[in-house]
């Protein structure tokens, strides 16, 4: 028998009826708990759906293989993250989720540096259980509504939920991306970059540190409003095997990432993570591309960048695991404009604690450095701008599983401008110019999605240069 899949307005009507029924069956003095109501719905593009909605924040998550897509609006539970509070917050979150039937997930994001508190309204992190969600899983689309019922507050919560439902809009498509105007402003500019790399090379010689990931924020003005959801749709088509994450605070401020890097995936006690570091450009010519890949696999500087990440992750995870193993060989992750080296790790945890995993792993030396403490202290003092959610941890937490990506390849869309972030692992043997070209290559997939007023200065270099010029 084929299952009946209601159209959008019938799905909304079904949820509304479920809310009315919930009111009848719930004792208003029951203890605090989460309830999730769901209904199947006709296939709708989650990004187009987000574009049409009015409630805030708007959030989006897609895992790397596209098996789970979650678009959320508003919130039933909102937990702004404070520096000292990450662990208790995550514990509260997992307790709430454990007592909730259904597929509830808390969307979460944490900034790169948990000691730094400000990044406009994003702060040093956010955790939200969306009020309404459109979820796509195993080719099924589900519309869901989450409720946090507290003793004596049940009616108020049900009324808020019905009001949210009544505000839903039907999707009507995604607006075109704007043209990027003029030249970008880079923080730091090339001279500042060169100075910092040289300073780091001295520090490595003195033995103070072994690796620091230095980054840049590049800012363009846009000709008209830039839809984060259109950007994620186009970017995701270009980089199919990437996590996609988006958080729109309001119509003037959003953060999105289309990133190849997994921080961790936890299913019960089973853990998967990876060391992603070491980069070469890609070439359109097949033979040249293959030569670049082979050169990357054989290159000692890139191998060293990757090994430092692998060793650090392995050493830090060891005390949390009953078993832990990593791939012997490096594999290649091939994106549209760059390719990376990757080692994968698998383990069995002693405890199913996301708080422990986040604190242990983040930030890995793929975005921070070795030693973590010295690299972070150096970056706070010398990087020269504040990363905010770039190179942060973003993902979703469920009752029995969780997954986080590392938000490299990310942008903030703020008041008519686009800020694009990119970093490169600086180690002994790094060359300032080659590392600058590496971050240009990392930004070039994003830039290729836009028309540019002044494209002649777009930062694309001949592919062979990045490795040869060291
Ligand atoms: C920091 C970024 O990427 C990281 C740095 C890499 C490198 O230097 O080779 C490769 C992948 C990531 O570990 C970024 O893209 O912003
Ligand atoms: Mg590198």
UniProtKB/TrEMBL annotation:
Residues that bind Mg(2+): 305, 438
Q: Which reaction does it catalyse?
A: chorismate = isochorismate
Span of domain Chorismate-utilising enzyme C-terminal:
191-442
EC number(s) on file = 5.4.4.2
Q: Which domain of life is it from?
A: Bacteria
Keyword annotations for this protein? Isomerase, Magnesium, Menaquinone biosynthesis, Metal-binding
Molecular function GO terms recorded: isochorismate synthase activity; magnesium ion binding
GO biological process annotation, one example: menaquinone biosynthetic process
Q: Which InterPro entries match?
A: ADC_synthase (IPR005801), Chorismate_C (IPR015890), IsoChor_synthase (IPR004561), MenF (IPR034681)
- Quote the catalytic residue positions: 211 (proton acceptor), 261 (proton donor)
Coiled coil regions in record: none
Quick check: keyword Isomerase in the entry?
yes
> What pathway annotation does it carry?
Quinol/quinone metabolism; 1,4-dihydroxy-2-naphthoate biosynthesis; 1,4-dihydroxy-2-naphthoate from chorismate: step 1/7; Quinol/quinone metabolism; menaquinone biosynthesis
What task does this protein carry out? Catalyzes the conversion of chorismate to isochorismate.
Q: Which NCBIfam families match?
A: isochor_syn
Q: Which family does it belong to?
A: Belongs to the isochorismate synthase family.
Name of this protein: Isochorismate synthase MenF
Annotated organism of origin:
Pelagibaculum spongiae
Q: Which gene encodes it?
A: menF
